[in-house]
Amino acid sequence: MKLNFHKYQGTGNDFILIDDREKLIDTTNKSVIASLCDRRFGIGADGLMLLREKEGYDFEMIYFNADGGLGSMCGNGGRCIARFAADLGVIQNDRVSFLAVDGPHEAILSATAVRLKMSDVEAIETNSDFYFLNTGSPHVVKFIPNEGQPDVEKLGREIRYNERFVKEGTNVNLVQESPQGILVWTYERGVEAETFSCGTGVTAVALVCAALGKTTADDSCAVVTRGGNLRVYYKKNKQGFSDIWLEGPAQNVFSGTINV
User: Does the model's pTM come out above 0.85?
Assistant: First the structure.
């Protein structure tokens, strides 16, 4: 079968996007999805997304990790698929609503950015040397000394595969406070490697920084990733954080056809 695909990226977090409104893709075939995401023998991506029709929404987002397994919510992926829907003509204005694995989402599109509404966060777990929270995906946030580029894969694996997280897995965000701002490196489960950016990870980092009083604004936090800059907007209240929005660029890289 010849498969039409589109490659998108959001601050270096890259995805294969497929218009699957006719439901031709077998979502149970992990090996095919993993082969498409393979960077040497396939198209290459951090994940793959299907855009499908969904009653009551503009579309449904179905996200797969690079290993072929169904993934949890992906913030940069959500921003990219919103741009993809606009490019396909699925939406005719600058606002979109869609359903993802963690529930409904909204997005607002401009010429240079996509702003995605994230799930509310009620609890941040505090530990002796890290914080843990769920922003649609589970995330460890760990502050590290400002001593240059960390060994993300080594430190990330140590936490992701420790006794607590090995079964369900977690994403790991290493954070430095520097004159350039809040810097973050993310190790992603499912990819099992460092990615250039992670939207739910950046959201987790921003909310932890807000809870700790490490932000310069009351309602937003800018975060620098290897792939570019993102900003998280939020409302802080007694229950946690609500009205959370992740904003940054989302771009079409190229389109093509591959034999599957």
Answer: yes
